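Can't paste images in this forum, so I'm doing it all in text. The chain is below; anyone willing to post the predicted structure tokens underneath?
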Amino acid sequence: MNATAPRAERVDAQRNRRKVLETADRLFAERGTAVALGEIATAAGVGAGTVYRHFPTKEALMATVLDLRTEQLTARGLALREERGPGEAFFAFLRHVSEQAFANRGICEALASRGEWRRPLPTEGRCVVDSPLASLLLDAQRVGAVRPDLDVDDARAMMLGFVAMAQTLASPERAWRLMEVLLEGLRTDVDGTVADGTDADGMEMKRNSATRNEIPVGAEIRNETKRKCPVCGAAVPVSATGRPAKYCSSACRQKAFREQRKTAAPPAGSGPRPGKVGSR
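Text version of the structure:
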């Protein structure tokens, strides 16, 4: 009898902790991080002392909720790799992260360091997210689905941009449209052209797309000083729309990408250290 009592207390404590976490996650998602601990305790059906026993501060509770969400995002990234092709898995992961931000005000505030979450995202939490993000990005670039000049810092910045849109835009339709515009700028077509409306020679092309407006052939090209290709030194053609091209042709772009891969490759026999994938 004496041995069973402590065990029952532990089970009860674990159950209360789970109830507090589930309630906090729901209230943060619905109302943001301004929810008081007392409100969370009442909604969970426990006393305030129970909440403080498991989470001494509100920040500790918020950090635990965020950690759980981060683990879920990581698991989703790994699943997408198995479900889809290398290119689409990367884009689907970015969309999934933005969907979570749209649906969860608390996590949105936490990732953007807004509301009552004043400290930056913990370094270890960022590494957990960076690991699947970097892996999916590398897979997509390896098959030529994503432009080679994008790195994991750029991709993470875009995710945070999606979070900012979720907070500031009143229209979800507008937010989704802008997100698709941004994602479209990362794509590289199967034939090696960058998705900015130009081919390797800078000639504008008409492309079918359900996620953006068509640009008429012959549209006026904006007045810009031509850039030099860092590979061959030739002038880089200027397009009417989209992100300025960095290389003069797909051949130079692929050559630069191969050189970057060689430079970034670790010495033989030295695999990546745990927890450092994708971190800078």
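The chain has two domains: 14-184, 198-206+220-266. The chain has a mean pLDDT of 72.
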